[in-house]
Description:
Layout: E1 6-12, H1 31-38, E2 41-47, H2 53-62, H3 66-69, H4 85-91, E3 96-100, E4 115-116, H5 145-148, E5 151-154, H6 156-182, E6 189-193, E7 202-203, H7 205-212, H8 230-238, H9 246-276, E8 283-289, H10 308-311, E9 315-318, E10 327-334, H11 335-346, H12 360-363, E11 375-382, E12 395-402, E13 405-410, E14 416-419, H13 436-449, H14 455-479, E15 495-496
Parallel strand pairs: 1-6, 1-8, 2-10, 3-4, 3-6, 5-7
Antiparallel strand pairs: 2-9, 5-15, 8-9, 11-12, 12-13, 13-14
Amino acid sequence: MNQRPNLLYIHTDQHTPYVTGCYGDPLVQTPNLDRLAANGVVFDNTYCTSPICVPSRMSMLTGRHPYQNEVWTNSHGLDSNIPTLAHAMGAAGYRPVLIGRMHSVGPDQLHGYAERLVGDHGPNHIGGHDLGRGVLDGTAGPDRISLIKSGSGQSAYQVHDECVTAATVDYLNQLGARKRADGGLAPFSLTVGFMLPHPPYVARQGDYAIYATKMTMPRKPVPFERVKHPFLRAWREHTGIVEVADAEILRSRAAYWALVHGVDLMVGQILQALGANGLAGETLIVYTSDHGDMVGEHGLWWKHVFYEESVKVPLIISWPGIIPGGQRCERVVSALDVTATVLDALGAPPLPNSPGRSFLGLISDTRPTPAWEDVAFSEYCADEYVPQTIGNGRSYQRMIRQDNWKLVYYDGLEPQLFNLAEDPGERVDRAQDADGDCQAVRAQLIARLLEDWNPEVVAAKMAAKRADNAVLYAWARQTNPPNQYRWTLRPEMNVLDNPEL
Length: 501
């Protein structure tokens, strides 16, 4: 085995851990992820840093919270001078390669990667021209149309991921050929970015048929009249999901399960190529996602909220000979900790100014066992896709999970508080509980959450970014700048088998 491992980092989009076999779902077929889990460790409490794409992804790159990156929305670009996971791997002697999704906004489409083989489906620049999604326009969410136009068909996102898979298999085949020809190979670093199972909730007919007749309703339905928190009420009204017909719910859920199934098949192709080329025994494999999906639980869909289905992500890590298989880790970890752990495993320098912690010692006897605090933070600060009835269309929220407690802070509104040991389904909000212990926990968690995060400062910085982005958007619309890395999504790639929907 090489002194340092290869890295295969597979990063999906919007995969809630609860729709995975190794996380206990009895319906979905994920044999490849389950096999990876059996050979490594499954983390039960991994939290993303933001329940939307770009802030979460940029945090995983830099090892910093969104407020540290000043990236809060999908229209915010990451400062190219902030060192990333890829920069640190390069500094350690790796040549980091990215195939597929990054979702970076702006001219820097590498952020430390030495090579990128497949780009994102959309324009590199805010204001860049998009060809649209044809019959599935508007279905990427958050809008009711994504539930109405759901079911059997084809999403261009799946076509994108199949291109990513083919490019990854080819890359591994070439590495294997070089290894066989030269008798050796320098350790490689390969990041694979998938779009799925991100909506549209549309899946290939064969995959969809597996789940269409078996799909169940959400375990935690919450009728609108029982929703108490004003933001969640306004959110459901804003996105058109006050009431959703059972047929839509079942159709959308069946498609989501089928998309996860499709992801597993593509992961299987990549793992098969890794093994066939004699690279599996020397490779650290990490599988995770940027955030989850509510898939109807609590009466909610998509992400944007801090319920477990949205803010938790799957995390499966395998490293033959270093991490014993068949493990389950229940410690609370952040996506920032995943970045720190990968760098630790590769012998790369830690990222400066990152609060991420390596948990390698929790899962491997090759490292000292660290003192570990069970804490993670996530934030959602938005000035788009927000109900106008809440803060004039702007919202500043942050979550802390500490030990068994989770608190969700809404600037200007009452918080939510859940005891996840007693109430893992988050059915009972304890924030207004008169119990003295609950009030003490509430006060302590709010104080800690606000130690390094100020919603007034965030609001001011986001206002400045809105002004900057107005110019950048107009510039891109007028000049149509070239895309450095872009996969061409064509409207006709999107198909809905029942066009009447």
